[in-house]
Amino acid sequence: MAPLISIKNLYFSYGEQLVLENINLEVNRGDFLAILGPNGSGKTTLIKLILGLLKPQKGEIRLFGQPSATFKERWRIGYVPQRAIARVDPVFPVSVAEVVSFGLLPKKSFPRFMKASDWEAVREALRQVEMEAYGRRKLSQLSGGQQQRVFIARAIVAQPEVLILDEPTTGVDVTTQERFYDLLGLLNQKGLTIIIVTHDIGIVNKHVKQVACLNRRLVYHGTHEEFCSSPRLKEYVGEHHLVIHRH
Ligand SMILES: Nc1ncnc2c1ncn2[C@@H]1O[C@H](COP(=O)(O)OP(=O)(O)OP(=O)(O)O)[C@@H](O)[C@H]1O
Ligand SMILES: [Mg+2]
Q1: Do the beta carbons of residue 229 and residue 42 sit within 8 Å?
Q2: Which protein family is named in the record (predicted)?
Q3: Domains of the chain (ranges, CATH numbers)
Q4: Which residue lies with its CA nearest to atom 5 of ligand 1?
Q5: Measured CA angle at 178 (ends 173, 184), to 5 deg
Q6: Which of 100, 118, 166, 176 is the most interior residue, by most CB within 10 Å?
Q7: pLDDT of 6-60, one tens digit each?
Q8: Which atom of ligand 1 is nearest to 198's Cα?
């Protein structure tokens, strides 16, 4: 079976600045990949390239075996963008259910009516993130951790096969983070392929199966176990003074 995401010899620059250099990476069905790297190492840029929001200058990205440039079924990849919580407008009176329903738009053709089955899908997505009781609440009235769950519901409501999260736990307390990773672990067990992007090595917890370290180039890619016993990890922890959660 073709990998869900295949990246070959990828280069990307913003103007003169080379941000990604010769990236080669495969993501297979069932993977739970953490992409680690310091601020400015190109993580968000790589995600935007995968999503087709940016075009590579050189190299190839294939999604579900098809060239990214002509790939149409964007809903097959769910996305929780960086700083989604910080962008919540405290005045805009959008409800939780409405926010989640926006995740169905890529799957719809015009006219984009919401059918009864669509609202059922919204309820189901909220149930999966244990937020079904909050559908009518205003998004701005939820806590950061609750909002984060709503953004996951929005990203999974169209039943994607891959979920990509860019720094989803920034500003969320440790207990909420643990519950959050348990939720991702559960979704992964049910068959969802997950890519989580962060500069926080604390994210490499018991649910993560593969680790990739990015710093303009892909400096490491291997299994979680290899990573935990590799000198690369010790360097990384040493440089960043961070603590790792082993299983
Ligand atoms: N739209 C843009 N135009 C020009 N340069 C950009 C743009 N977006 C990002 N950059 C630069 O590209 C580099 C990589 O940025 P990117 O956002 O991919 O990093 P990141 O690894 O996601 O960082 P962080 O951990 O801070 O989110 C940085 O040097 C950044 O300044
Ligand atoms: Mg980023």
Answers
A1: no
A2: Belongs to the ABC transporter superfamily.
A3: 5-86+94-240 (3.40.50.300)
A4: 14
A5: 125
A6: 100
A7: 999 999 999 999 999 999 999 999 999 999 998 899 999 999 999 999 999 999 9
A8: 25
Residue type, 126: L
Which of ligand 1's atoms lies nearest the C-alpha of 46? 18
- Check if the beta carbon of residue 167 is closer than 8 Å to that of residue 177: no
CB neighbours of residue 247 within 10 Å: 10
Q: With the CA atoms of 46, 175, 202 and 62 taken in that order, what torsion angle do they form, in degrees rounded to the nearest 10?
A: -20
Over residues 121-177, the pLDDT tens digits come to 999 999 999 999 999 999 988 988 888 889 999 999 999 999 999 987 776 777 778
Residue 78: CB atoms within 10 A of its CB come to 27
Helix (H) or strand (E) holding 236: helix 231-240
CA geometry: angle at 22 spanning 18 and 27, to 5°? 120
Cβ-in-10-Å burial (0-12, 13-18, 19+) of 93 comes to exposed
